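thought: fold this chain, then report.
action: predict
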Amino acid sequence: MDWMIYGANGYTGRMVVEEAVRRGLRPVLAGRNAAQLEELAHKHGLPVRAFALDNPVALRTGLNGIGLVLHCAGPFSATSVPMLDACLDVGAHYLDITGEIDVFAHCHSRDEDAKARGIVVLPGAGFDVVPTDCLAAILKRELPGATSLVLAFEAGGGPSPGTAKTSVEGLGKGGRARIGGKLTRVPLAWKTRTFERDGEQRFAMTIPWGDVYTAYVSTGIPDIEVYMGVPPATAARLRRLRLLGPLLGLGPVQSWLKKQVGKKVRGPSEKTRGKTGCVVWGEARDAGGHEVRRTLRTPNGYDITVTASLGIVQRLLSGPAPEAGFHTPSRLMGADYVLSLPGVRLE
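observation:
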């Protein structure tokens, strides 16, 4: 099966290309910037297809003969719909590395279409949301009657440009939580609490992480909150931003903020990634007061994105034919998939 990395010339895309080649894989490199793609392809001797996502004809021509797309070009709020539509039209498996709740919801809404076309649709094939989704499934397995789930993570190294722009978009949407099985809008930094890391208490705040959507699909647990470790000042600043409300979502404000990201954010260097890892906490409780807690230690989130997404690619390229339709990582790969990734351990 011929397969494609779209956004191959981006921060994460380049990392995925390097590791794919190391594994003996030969993806088609694709994106909008032909010059950057040609340079990257020449280095590895790989084929190139340059096309934009806002031209439906060019997009479908670009996917001709492709059986799987690993979509790495965010923000996915803008790019996932046209790419998913095209994958459904041509019959190509769709993977991406989003963490955006609305993208998960849209992809899930196309479940029947994906089944009819015989393809897998799996958004969130990277750090968003493989470790947290698998941990949620592990906790559900250990406490089958769980009614509430708390997930949290502390990630080092800083964001890539795409991740930072996605965070800017989130400012105008507020927070999200799963309450009584329903996606519910909550204020920015809705709740705060601490988690223990190496004997120290680490401060964290709620964020609209993708597991608010995907963990419910994977586990059926009706109450779900996701936290991120941040300095207390960050939570205080976000709570002050609540006063701006819808203004943060206005086009001119979003454009200005994203331009600042483009000027200042480059993503962590290889050296920084090598020195920084992530901790992922999970807590599940049932109505009787029983509780299970587990902690995952992982490499840097971008390194996990590379290994997790390529593991799923290889499963679809060479494994048994999967059930078509929408999947979360743990539903396709199993709850223990994250434990097979390099440098991951469960505590």
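thought: worth noting. The longest strand covers residues 146-155.
final: tokens above.
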